[in-house]
Amino acid sequence: MPDRTQHPFLTNRKVVFLLALFCCVLWGSSYPAIKNGYALFDIAADDIASKLVFAGWRFLLAGLLLLVYAVASGSRLGRFSMRTLGQFAVLGLTQTTLQYVFFYIGLAYTTGVKSSIMNATGTFFSVLLAHFIYRNDRLSYSKILGCAIGFVGVMIVNFGAGLDGLLQFDFTLLGEGFVVIAALVLAASSIYGKRISQGIDPIVMTGYQLTVGGAALLIGGYGAGGELDGFTLMSTALLGYMVVLSSAAISIWSLLLKYNRVSMITAFNFMVPVFGALLSAMFLNESVLEWRNGVALLLVCCGIWLVTKDPTTLRG
């Protein structure tokens, strides 16, 4: 762990809470943004190649934006060893390319509300992985209980609507399954990013990984015959928002992970489905007022409280 006393701002509990919550709002807004992007750019549900192109431009531009900002702020981009540059490439190919291949495909085959709640499984994976990787981030009764309750909440959203839905479990590999796989990839790659970020400017690291990951998505998308047409003022503005969303949220999250415990920061991922569900209902006219959605959101919020109240999560 870095010396926390050198960064009192980024380890202040109130600041951490507000910044983490801000990231969750941005990520929650990505669910309706991506689905609206499919509509505005006329990307069909089964057009996987064009989805990769759409994602590729988003992350490539976000990465370049961060690198420009880093240079303007006085950071140097070319003084890294080949080993470090290789680590940036691995992070980009996992945290950006691989994760969003699964995420963009999965989101096309399920609703924004449901995807946002399913994606909260990433918190469970992060806290579990941190237990085996970091000596000072072990599982406790409170963490286990919080993750279990949050995970149950995520599962509840897959039951069918109405009382008859209690006997049905609506889960597909291509839809909900891919969203969960994306969450697992993100959890593992975030811990890897925390490890290599020590002694490195997180803004520069994020800029490189987004650029590499976005370029890989573009190569794969265009290579598979994808395209991105239908540029209008609205679709261009939406893409621009998603570029800023990615660069801001991932950079702030990387800074928080660098100077705080993994379990403390990733616990806030449970808030992403709350904002994702509300914003999807608002902008996609999806129903959020179903018993399963309400119970699921209540349980994931309870999970956050149990994990973050643990004294070992907030200490040191």
Question: Overview of this structure, please?
Answer:
There is one protein chain. The chain is mainly alpha-helical. It has one domain (6-314). Helices cover 74% and strands 0% of the residues. The chain has 14 helices and no strands. The protein is globular, with a radius of gyration of 19 Å. The chain starts with 7 loop residues before the first helix and ends with a helix. The model is unreliable at 1-5 (pLDDT under 50).
Task: List the SSEs and their pairings.
Layout: H1 8-11, H2 13-40, H3 48-72, H4 82-108, H5 112-118, H6 121-133, H7 141-156, H8 173-196, H9 202-223, H10 233-259, H11 262-266, H12 271-284, H13 291-308, H14 311-314
Helix pairs in contact: 2-5, 2-10, 2-12, 3-4, 3-9, 3-10, 4-8, 4-9, 5-12, 6-7, 6-8, 7-13, 9-10, 12-13
Brief rundown of the structure:
This protein is mainly alpha-helical. Helices cover 74% and strands 0% of the residues.
Largest β sheet strand count, sense and barrel closure: none
N-to-C order of helices and strands: HHHHHHHHHHHHHH
Radius of gyration over all CA atoms, rounded: 19 Å
User: What structural class should be given to the helix and strand makeup?
Assistant: mainly alpha
Number of strands: 0
**Uncertain regions: pLDDT < 50 for 5+ in a row?**
1-5
Tell me, rounded to a whole number, the average pLDDT.
Answer: 80
How would you sum up the global shape?
Answer: globular
| Whole-number total of structural domains | 1
Give the % helix: over 70%
Q: What is the straight-line distance between the termini?
A: 9 Å
Fraction of residues in β-strands: under 5%
Number of helices: 14
